[in-house]
């Protein structure tokens, strides 16, 4: 849904659905390949965007008609975008053929380790990007939009801080899932006698100073509705 605030600025409401994933096995970085973590997560996003047009949209005549005055149709528009939104994410990892939600497992001791609370699966995002629009006629338009989302969470992939002692992980997960939580918290496969130090309690697992980002690329089809103004009824004068 899009509403023109002024001739050069529009506001729009968007609902986006997507999927993000990652796997340390696809990188050439030695430390990350050894870490051997992987995940996937659904992204459900609701946002409001502001779109200042670089060129003023006009709705004049599409063709140059002899004897017809007025502005000629301008069918292409480019615009930057910025906004604010909220999104839901739910990182999962596959273990023995089954996908497990990672947030309830507390893979970094969240909920038990001092100073680490359970993270929320809702977070704020700032969309920033650019869009291109082509007006086919006065009603229908087609567009392409690309935007990066700056977020304020580092847990879209469930990886942020350091490894902790498995006792904290077992307490955080609780019940029958404690063994699974320990396995998913550290999936490294030591080879040399010193490899265990890479995932020992206190060793780096993620980087909390670098929040996660994600991107959306969209192809859009839009139909323009015209707002009907009510006519004032004149009252007879006596």
What are the main properties of this structure?
238 residues; mainly beta; Porin; two-stranded antiparallel sheet; 3 helices; 9% helix
Please give a structural write-up.
With 238 residues, the chain is mostly beta strands. The chain has a single domain, classed as Porin (Beta Barrel). 9% of the residues lie in helices and 39% in strands. The protein is built from 3 helices and 9 strands. It has a 7-stranded antiparallel β-sheet with strand order 1-2-3-4-7-8-9, with no helix packed on it. The longest helix has 8 residues, at 166-173. The chain is elongated and about 85 Å long.
Largest sheet: 7 strands, antiparallel
CATH level-1 class: Mainly Beta
Under the CATH scheme, which architecture would be assigned? Beta Barrel
Q: For the record, give the distance between the C-alpha atoms at the N and C termini, rounded to a whole number.
A: 47 Å
Q: Report the sheet-strand fraction.
A: 35-45%
């Amino acid at each position: 849904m899009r509403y023109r605030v002024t001739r050069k600025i529009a506001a729009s409401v968007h609902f986006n659905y997507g999927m993000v994933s990652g796997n340390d096995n696809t990188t050439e970085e030695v430390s990350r390949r050894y870490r051997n973590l992987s995940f996937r997560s659904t992204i459900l996003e609701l946002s409001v965007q502001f779109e200042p047009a670089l060129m003023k949209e006009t709705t004049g005549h599409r063709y140059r008609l002899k004897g017809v005055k007025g502005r000629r149709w301008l069918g292409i528009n480019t615009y930057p975008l910025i906004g604010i939104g909220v999104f839901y994410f739910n990182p999962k990892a596959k273990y023995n053929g089954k996908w497990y939600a990672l947030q309830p497992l507390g893979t970094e001791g969240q909920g038990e380790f001092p100073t680490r609370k359970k993270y929320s699966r809702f977070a704020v995002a700032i969309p920033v990007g650019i869009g291109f629009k082509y007006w086919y006629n006065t009603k229908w338009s087609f567009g392409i939009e690309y935007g990066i989302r700056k977020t304020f969470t580092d847990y879209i992939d469930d990886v942020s801080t350091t490894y902790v002692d498995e006792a904290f992980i077992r307490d955080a997960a609780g019940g029958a899932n404690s063994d699974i939580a320990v396995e998913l918290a550290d999936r490294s496969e030591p080879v040399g006698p010193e490899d265990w130090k890479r995932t020992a309690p206190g060793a780096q697992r993620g980087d909390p100073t670098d929040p996660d980002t994600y991107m959306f690329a969209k192809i859009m089809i839009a139909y323009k509705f015209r707002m009907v103004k009510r006519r004032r009824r004149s009252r007879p004068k006596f």
